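#struct-pred
JK: can someone run the complex with fe (ii) ion? inputs below
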Amino acid sequence: MIHDPEALVGYAERPSYRAGDRVELKVSSSGTTACRLVRLRHGDTNPAGPGLLQDVVGDVSTFAGTQQSLRPGSYLVSSAVPLTPESDRWSMTAWVWPTLATAETAIMSVGDTDRWVALVWNEAGALGVNVGSTPGGVHTAWTAVQLRARRWQLVTLTVDHRSGIHSIRVYDAGEVVDAPINDLSIELMTATVEVLTAARHSADGPTAFFNGKIEAPALWGGAITRETLARFAEADEVPGTALYGLDFAKAQSEVVISESVNARDARMINMATRGVTGRRWAGQVESWAAAPELYAAIHFHDDDLGDAGWQTSCTITLPPDAESGIYAAWLTCGDYEDWVTFIVTRPVGRAPKRLAVLIPTLTYLAYANEPIFQPHIPMFHDRRDDFTDRHALVSQYNWHTDGSGVVFASWRRPMLNLRPDYRYWLTGHPHGPGLDLYLLHWLDEQGLDYDLISDHQLHDGGVQLLEDYPVLLTGAHPEYWTVPMLDALDEFQSSGGRLGYLGGNGLAGVVGIHPVEPHVSEMRRRGNGVGLWDADPGESHLVSDGNLGGTTRHHALRGRELIGVDIVGMGFAEARPYIRTDDGRDARVEFVFAGVDETIIGDFGLHMGGAVGYEVDSADKRSGTPPHALVIASCDTIPPNYVQTEQRGVSRADMVFFETPAGGAVFSTSSITWTGSLSHDDGRNAISRITRNVIDRFLDPTPFHYSRTLNGSEQR
Ligand SMILES: [Fe+2]
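RT: done, C-alpha cells with the ligand placed:
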C-alpha cells in the first residue's frame, strides 16, 4: 500500500475517546474509501521485531471520498457591523507591529465577498488600498507611505465617498506621514458590513493574511486628519464617532472578543496568539495576567492553523466493551492507506485494571508535523514528511514564516507522524505512538492488563483519574506537562502511588491546553538552549491558564523532584547500554535486578539498537533529585555527538529508584529507547526482566520503606 497524504489523509477531533464514544473522522480522498477500526498492537516495521500488528475490530464501512484542503492563516471576523459614514466619510484605524510582508497582506477589510475595501501593505513596506467588487474586479492602489517592521505604528485609512479622495496616514513616534489616493473607486457600503482584521475579503473567502501584531482595530464616522491621528496616538483623544472597535486586553483565553464597540462578536479563526505584548508594554510586567492593558495585542500569522474544519467523512462508534488501547481508523482508498490514531480509554463505570499507562498525547501534539529543519541531517525520508513541507505545516519545534515561535498546536488537522509505522527523520526509527506500542505490545505479551490515560484526560480529570490505580507507567517520551498534570502526579505520589517512568526527556516542558478550544495545546519556549525558539520578552506566560511556560526547571514542581531525573542530552544516531552501579547492588533495589546477572544492560533493541538513546536524563541531587535516590545503573559513555542540555556539562543517563514518604516508589529509566528493547529475543532480556520485576513489586501493596536519613540507609 502507498502512503501519500495528497491522495488519502484524515484526522479525528481529539486525542482520546472512551469506549462507546463516537469518533468523527475527517478525511480527504478521491473515490470510494474504506474505514476499519483497528486496535494497534505494534508499529515498528523493523524486520528484527514483530512488525506492524493490528487487530481489526468490527465491520468495514465505506464512503465516497471528497478532497478537502487546508486553509491556514489567522484572522478575526465580525459580522453585521453597522457602517454609518458622516458626510459620506468614514475611517479605519489600527495599531500595528508588522513582522513580515509578502506580496500583499491585509490589516483590516470592510465589506463582504462581493464588495470590499481593505488596507494592505506589501513586501516593499508600502501601504495601499485594495478594493473588490462584482463585476468590477479587484484593484490595489499602492502609496509611498511605508510601515516599518517590528515597531508600533498607528495607521489609518479615510474613505471619502463624496470627493473620491481617500487617504492613508501613519503615525510613527511623533510623526505623521500620509498620501492621498484619488484614482480608486470605492463603492458605498451596505448598511451593515463584515469586518476582517488581519485578512481581507475575496470572492473565495478571507485571504492576504497579516503577519505581526495588531491592537485596537476600529472604525470611525468621518475623516481622520493628520492632527486628529496624532492626538489619538499621543493622548487617546477619540478621532471621530466610534462605529466599531475591539479591545484585546481582556478575556485572553477566549476566541470570541466580547470587549468591543458595535460588534456582537469578533470570532478568531485559526488561533492567532494572544497574551502578547502590546504598544504600551515596556517591560513593566512579565505576564499578561498581571496587566492585561499592556497586552492588548494579538499576533497573527499566515500559517496559523487552529482547526482545519473538514467535513465529517464517516463516524465510528467504539464498542462499549472495547479494551483500552491505541486504536486507529485504518483508511484505504485504491492503493493508498492511512491511519488516524487515537487513544481509547476505560468507559465510566467499568472496573479499572491495576496498571495505568499514561500516553503522552501532549508530546505527540508538540512534535506533530515537525518538518525536516536545519541544522539537522535527516537519517530517513518518509514521504509523509513531504506533505508537511508542501503545505507549510509547522510544529511547536518550529518558527512561523515571520520568525516567531509556534505557540499553538491543534489536534484538528492531519498529523502525518502520528502513524503506527511512521519513522522519524531525525533518528530513522519510530516516534510517538510507535514508541508506546513497543510497551503496549510487551505488556500484552506479558499478560499484564492495563488501562490507558491520555495527557489530555489527566489534565481534565486530575488525581481522581489516577486514584483507581496503584501503579502508573509513563510512555517513552512524556516531555510536555500542564501544571494540573504535574499537580495530579504529585498528589498521586503523595498518596503512595507507584510510578514507573519508562522514558526519557520526561516532565521537561510546561504547556497549556486551551480552555475554549481544548484540541489546541500551547507552548512558550524559554531558555531551553538547544537551538529552538524562545518566547519574546514578556510573552512566557500561557494564555491558556496564566501559568509560566518554559521548562519545569523554572517551576515549583520540578521534574527532578517527581521522577528523580531531568533531560541532559539528545542524539539521533546511536544508543548505548547501562552499566549497573554499586548503588545497584543495594538491598533496596534487589527486587529490580532479580534474575539479571549481567552488568552491561541493554546493548540491544529495535530503537537505535540500545536501551539508552535519543533523549536521556540524569540525576542531580543539587537540583531536585531526592537525597535518598539510588542511581542503580548508568550510562556515562553518551556519544559525543549528543547535544548537551545540562548547563553543568553532565552527560549521562541514570536509571534511578527512590521510595516516597507514603509507601510508594519511583523507578526511572531516563531513556526514550528503553521501550524499544523490551521485545528483544522475544522478551527474554534484561530490560524486559527489570521492567517486569519493577511492575510486579509495584503491584504488590506492601509499602515501600521510606527512610528519613540523608542517604536512605537506616542508622544502626
Ligand atoms: Fe523530546
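RT: quick notes.
The radius of gyration is 28 Å.
The pocket of fe (ii) ion is lined by residues 477, 479, 505, 615 (CB under 6 Å).
JK: thanks, will look after standup
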